[in-house]
Amino acid sequence: MSLSQNQTYRVLSMYDRLSKGHALTKKGEADSFQVGEKTIQRDFESIRAFLETAKTNEYLEYDRKDKIYKLEVGDEHYLRNEEIFTLAKILIESRAFPKADMDRLIDKLTNLAQPANQDFIKKLMLNEKHLYVDLQHKKSLFSLLWELAQAVHTKRVINVCYKREHDQESSERTLKPVGLLFSDYYFYLIAYQTKHELEFPTIYRVDRMTACHVTDEHFQAPYHNRFQEGEFRKRIQFMHAGELMTIRFRFTGPSPQAVLDRLPTARIIEEGESGMVFEAEVFGRGIKMWLLSQGEYVEVLGPQVLRDEMRRSVMDMVKNY
């Protein structure tokens, strides 16, 4: 092997081990390759120069105290190990994908961590991946979600075959898609129907679509009426659509903060010994499910139609006991 080949092999070997999280010393490398420490010093400088010209997120750090060289990640735009682990945990808890898809996602995410920490993150996630439970539909949704996202962005009408849980067969629908949301295990398409002119959109579970065709027909969405996913999410509960309404309720529970987190549009309009009175703008009747879940800690004050519905539901619940 020629001198240049020896040098190339040596530098590549050093960089490979550095990229895997190993710390190197001049003396250790000099002894290993049977060259002088000045030669190894030049090799380290070559690696440092390469990293600088390559504009990667890595840089070669020298620890003067321990006299070691190691690669560090210095760009804040890249994910850190703790961020990767946190995202993996959120993915697992979401139960958004079939097990095979989830395993691939977690593995790909883990591979973005520093090589020295990948095995540790994999060990942390191993048991959770083993105990992961698929949702009942077990459908891979990546392609369909991407297709729908493109239709939303380009404002193109879509034809879908949609099968609700208790339907025997799918039904065809022509829709104007305006948004995609994820909530409580499922992805949802928010869309306006073409056959009925409604002031509010309809919500469709993506996994219940058995077919989807994006047409060449475009629909208009004037800016002042533009649907905004973030604003819609603030006002929707349990993905139940309906008319926009303003509700008021008294809350006597231990955590008003939980109310504000659950209902982003909520504000405290009164506070006293009898509890806090909240006002919030919400879509549809999904809010009723949340209010009922708060039990004796909530009293609906308005609108009257919702207060009456709550009273009837509570009386029906009492009959069960």
Automatic annotation (TrEMBL):
<dbReference type="InterPro" id="IPR051534">
    <property type="entry name" value="CBASS_pafABC_assoc_protein"/>
</dbReference>
<feature type="domain" description="WYL">
    <location>
        <begin position="146"/>
        <end position="213"/>
    </location>
</feature>
<feature type="domain" description="WCX">
    <location>
        <begin position="245"/>
        <end position="317"/>
    </location>
</feature>
<protein>
    <submittedName>
        <fullName>DNA-binding transcriptional regulator YafY</fullName>
    </submittedName>
</protein>
<dbReference type="Pfam" id="PF13280">
    <property type="entry name" value="WYL"/>
</dbReference>
<dbReference type="InterPro" id="IPR057727">
    <property type="entry name" value="WCX_dom"/>
</dbReference>
<dbReference type="InterPro" id="IPR026881">
    <property type="entry name" value="WYL_dom"/>
</dbReference>
<dbReference type="Pfam" id="PF25583">
    <property type="entry name" value="WCX"/>
</dbReference>
<dbReference type="GO" id="GO:0003677">
    <property type="term" value="F:DNA binding"/>
</dbReference>
<keyword id="KW-0238">DNA-binding</keyword>
